[in-house]
Fold each of these.
Amino acid sequence: MIFNNGRLRHKRVLPGFTISLGVSLLFVSLILLLPTTGLIMQTSSMSLSEYWGVITDPRVLASYRVTILSALAASLFNCFFGLLLAWVLVRYEFPGKRILDALVDLPFALPTAVAGITLATLYAENGQIGSVLAELGIKVAYTPLGIVVAMIFTSIPFVVRTVQPVLEELSHDEEEAGMTLGASDRAVFWRIILPSLWPALMVGTALSFTRSLGEFGAVIFIAGNMPYISEITSLMIFVRLQEFDFAGASAIASVVLMTSLLLLLLINLWQARYLRRIHGR
Amino acid sequence: MNSFKPLRVGEAPLIKWSLITLAVFLGLLLLLLPLVSIFQQAFVGGWERYIGHLTQPDSLHAIGLTLMVAALTVPINLVFGIMLAWSVTRFEYPGRKLLITLIDIPFAVSPVVAGLLYLLLYGNSGWLGEWLYEHDLQIMFAWPGILLVTIFVTCPFVARELIPLMQQQGASEEEAAVILGASWWQLFRRVTLPNIKWALIYGVILTNARAVGEFGAVAVVSGNIRGETNTLPLHVQLLYEDYQAEAAFASASLLALIALVTLMLKAVVEWRQQRSLSANDNKEQSQL
């Protein structure tokens, strides 16, 4: 008890406990939690069969499929591209390296609507990239492939920025031992380096996937938004709202919200586990 | 000589340069080309037309509204970010971890869903909206709604930058200051602020960049009233869908400019942070 008391007093040497916690709780309640009550009330006014009917409507189901498949493709691409960028930025010196490093954050800094109209223009059939691809018979803008391109752009930084610090702090001892003992580059990379990068790479890819699932601004300009083919779920919510179908919009939004919260929770748990493993060594 | 050769994977010139070439090529194609093409498209018709597009009354109003929303969002989230980071890194209490997880929600939630949450609460059919309507307070389809969703979307940035740093630094310097009789303002101004300065600046830069550019959430609550509730990103959309690509890119170039400044400030902040860290190391080493 005495020890506890002492500890408690020790913690409260610093001022501002009540006010900082009070402001934080008030803010979190008003800005983050209060708005969810509207969604809960709106969806709970629907019957279960109504709710089920809305979220399994064929057009909505098609939108889940388009969104998930595009996000998977985009995050898979960024898993490789992000690892490549992180590797090159950490391991090598070359002219323009700092500019490339700064450019990686561009998708975070550039408003999504701006990215959207720019990518749509670039990849249109008369655009700078689109015209080259059109000669090869590949159409990007206004097809599902366009959605993937937009998702790749907006989620590039995630893998790079999660893998980069881990790669920087990686100890070179094991790597050098492997090389001295005559193992090939490839063997050392697969057996020694990749296993240490794996957790960070997974977290980065998962973050990139979550971001891609929710991406709206960059996608809608390039997607063409054809029902059943290139319509993403975020847009479905928007369409329902424009039809003043608030219940429908809420039902779809509740699916999206629960999916992203679940993903966030899983990523946090996974991150906590692998952080403990690293510090526990 | 041979023993000085670094024993690292991927140091063979062929592997090294092909990886660099591939990364730079993809970087140019996927990142630099879009950035350059924004300005290219904006200046297709020359300077005069560019200025002309930007000085349209609707454009000027959109710029003003966007700046106003950002100017209100940044200080609100700055105060919240510092308060939250202070409470979760300097005190122990039940639910502390939950609070840290909760502020990540805006990162995970689709902006359209964020907008919808606010629309359902404050719109005329929401329980709070009905009461507001009776009292003649308009929040949705007006600037207060835009401000609220912008605060929602940007609230994690400052806190996210501060929490890991303040956790790592620990409270010993601050406790020493309090024991030596510092007032809370002296404590903050002289001890805490100098330690978290760069992270704080970076958090503000990120908050500002996102506040200026938010699209999905604002699109839901704005109502797109030209010259009234159109922010700059919505203005870009409106012009683009009106087949006025040149005008759309003129407005977009302003947002791209803000993004460029953000990237440059970030580089400067990182450089300063590294310098102050290595200066501290040097100081410690010379004391030893």
Amino acid sequence: MSEWRYWLNEQRGTLMGLAIFLLMFAVYIANHPAGLTANVAQTAANKGVLFAFVAMAQALVVITAGIDLSVGMIFILTNCLASWIVVGEPLPTALGLVAVLAAGMACGAINGLLVIYGRLQPIVATIATGAVYFGLALLLRPFPGGSVNEDVADALTGRLFGVIPSSLVALAAAVVLVWLPFRRSRLGRAAYAAGSSEQAAFMSGVPIRRGKFAAYTLAGLLAAMGGLFLTFFTYTGEAAYASGSGYTLWSIAAVVLGGVSLYGGRGSAVGAIFGAFAARTTGDMLFVFDVDPLWQPLLQGVVLMIAVSIGSLALLRVRNRLDWFQ
Amino acid sequence: MSDTSEDRISIRTRLPVFLRRADPAVLTAFGCILLLLFLSSLYSSNFLSLNYLLQQLKVASFLGVVAAGVMVVILLGHIDLSIPWVMTTGAMMACAAAGFGAIGPVIAIPFGILCGTAFGLLNGFGVAYLRIPSMIVTLASNVVAQGLMVVYTGGFSPQDSAPPAVRWLATGFVIPGLPNAILVWVAISAIMVFLFTRTSFGRAVYGIGNSERAAYLSGVDTRRIVMIAFAISGALSAFGGVLLAGYSSKAAQAMGDAYLLPAIAAVVLGGTSILGGRGSYLGTVAGVILITLLQSILSVMQMPEAGRQIVYGVVIIVMLLLYGRTPPNR
């Protein structure tokens, strides 16, 4: 038996996410008045990438069987921070970029410390840290404002060679530089092991604490990348509570659509990216079908409800009723 | 190891009965309330006046009603993220029903609660029968509820205000000096305590929270219990929303957004395990009062919103580190 079947089985969730996204995007493009032009692709990519970064962050934590309800707030906090320090000459801008990413990592690391070494439940611990991060964001930007180095912003949100959206390139770079090395490292395996059975992993001497800590910290880093991109799109920083909690909640939905199990140990951050793009396309779809914007939240909710209900078809295969309760 | 546990037992036997039986988490929560009142009284003696305390209890009663529902779900080991828009739905539907002819004012409150129950049943069906993780199904129904309300109101806050009966329930007085909202909270608390300690439903909820398999094998229809629990949560959120509409005399979009995190935090600060199966209702009451007091004291001290959020988050983390830790992994 060849290897690819195992690979296919392992990546089933991710491929499902990809399929959902491709289907939705195809329907979207087919009905778009302009078709698939570089402009349409750029707009779609820019809107999706923001969300994809936050979803990736969430996926890293969910793989360890945790949950991070503060990702949206880290996203907002780094947005506000970037609107102060990613400005001016090339050198200060570069230092500012590094500082923003470091701040995101610090936020993620605090979450990790509380959950792993403080032994708090991730749901409540990150609710509380989320409040703190939002408070800090408000402290930085009581009113929307600030600015960003527009050359960098335009370069990262424009197009490469006139066709490829550069935000997508940045997202791919994040996958290659952050996700893949993590996935292939000892710590990444530990994070998966901690998610699928913490007891067994602990007994086998897997470094679960360090693995989980790395996952939380990298989640902070990815959320900070999302925050940077938000600044690049809007040129300002704004501490909007509704936006932060919205991104947090939709990141959970994106992770599930992308085939990451909320019980941990299954799925990949790449799947979460597809989930994020699929969720984003739902919103755009209503625009091309000329639906009254008033109906948009309802239709998004119904689509989400149907999408998560599809997963329960697996119940039909359950032979032993005790398998219901896992 | 055995020495220390014997020491602990001997200390416990010397305590009065009611303290011996109390949950340490509940005691800590009440201790923190007293500490908070003491510290605030150093700032201004007005914090200890009867008027101020009654006012706080009145504000706490809205959160208390919502938290009672959330607690049932958390005891099962699930979570309900649909609180914000189910609250708003309850409030808006109650206000809408009030304008519905002569019987409108009579059916207003029951209709609002009924709408919340419907969303609770939807959540419960998804969790119990379709086995979707509660976090995601309640998230989806929150979006659906939001969508329905946005379509219903046409994108604006509705102009229809809360009917007199609803306002009376939230701000009127049956007993002079004691706002009705507090009485409502007391009544609901009495029902919840009865439900948790004296009925088979309550036993089943704790049982499912500890091990759903074991509960199922013991002959409990766990799926029905889970569905009822979510329905209770939906009904109580909607009722909380109705009360809130009466208090602010109108229903507005996003009025419930500020209630999700405090409700969960109140339940957890009261010593209920977020993994389910452990926790007492008294603790939830303590958690609700603690959070309301904290928010109120910070705003009276005229701390800006940013500082309030930070202090609020830090206090929750510190309290959880004091007594909310899970046992180590070995």
